[in-house]
Amino acid sequence: MTSRLAEAPAPAAAVPAPFPAPAEAAALVVPRHSCTGAEWAARQQLAACYRVFHLLGWTELIYNHISLRVPDSPGHLLLNRFGLHYTEVKASNLVKVDLQGRVVAPAGAAVNAAGVAPHCAIHAGVPDAHCVMHTHTTAGMAVACSRAGLAFDNFYAAQLWGRVAYHDFEGITVRADEGPRLVADIGDGRDGRAPKPAVILRNHGLLAWGTSLPAAFYTLWALQRACEVQLAGTPLGATVPISEAIRLACQEDAKKVNAEPEFGRDTFDALVRLVDRADGAWRE
Prior knowledge:
Layout: H1 22-27, H2 37-56, E1 66-69, E2 76-79, E3 95-98, E4 103-105, H3 113-125, E5 131-135, H4 138-145, H5 155-159, E6 164-167, H6 179-186, E7 198-201, E8 205-210, H7 213-233, H8 244-258, H9 265-278
Parallel strand pairs: 6-7
Antiparallel strand pairs: 1-2, 1-5, 2-3, 3-4, 5-8, 7-8
C-alpha cells in the first residue's frame, strides 16, 4: 500500500476589481458653478494642455503632471487626478491642492505623491512659477541619463543657452525634503540671478515652468525638440559647434520674446484647436 502526500490546494485566482461605474467617477468633480470665473478659465486651459500633451505623444500612461496656480486663490494649484489618462482629464475633474499637497477639492480625489511633492515645491519656492510641466519622453530621458547632458549645438538648444538647470537624481520624488534642493538648482531669484525655466532631472526626465501656461509649454517644447535632434544626430558623429557668441545672441533674442506677456499663446491655441476637432470634452 502506497501513501501519497496531500497536494496543496491551488491558489485562488485573483479577482479583478470592478471598474468604477460612470456615476462614481462623475461624483469626483468640481462643478462650474462652484468656481470663480478665473478658476474655471484656468481649469479649462490646463485640461486643454493635458489633451495637447497626448496629441504630441508626451504621455506616460497615467503618470507625470502639469500643474497650474489658481489665479485668485493664493496657495492653491490644480493638477490631474491620479488614475486618469490625459485624454480623460476635464476642467471639472482637475484636483485643487494646497502647497503641502493636501486635497482641497473635490473631496476624496486621489493625487500622486511623486508628482505633488516636486510641483508644490517649485510653485512655493520659485515666485514666477505659475505653471510647471514634467515629462518622461524617450528623448528627454535619454539626454537626462547622458553624462554630457544637453549639447547646445542645435537651433532649439541654442535658444536655451544659460537657461537650463540640472537636478541630480534622488530616487522617486515622494520626499518633501528634496524640494528645497530642487528649487536651489533652479534658483529662486534671491541671489540676483534669474531662475532657469528649463530643467533636466538627471536619470529621470524633463521639466519646465513659466509665468504662464503657454510660456511654460513653449520652453518644454523647445527643450524636447533639442533633445530629439540631439538623439537623432548622435549616430552621425560630431556636430557642427555653435560659438558662445552665437549662443549668447540666441539667448538674448529668446529672452526678449519670452518676456512678452502673451508669449507662446498663439502656438498653444493652435494646438488646442487641433484637440478640439477630435474631442472638446476637456471643456466640461
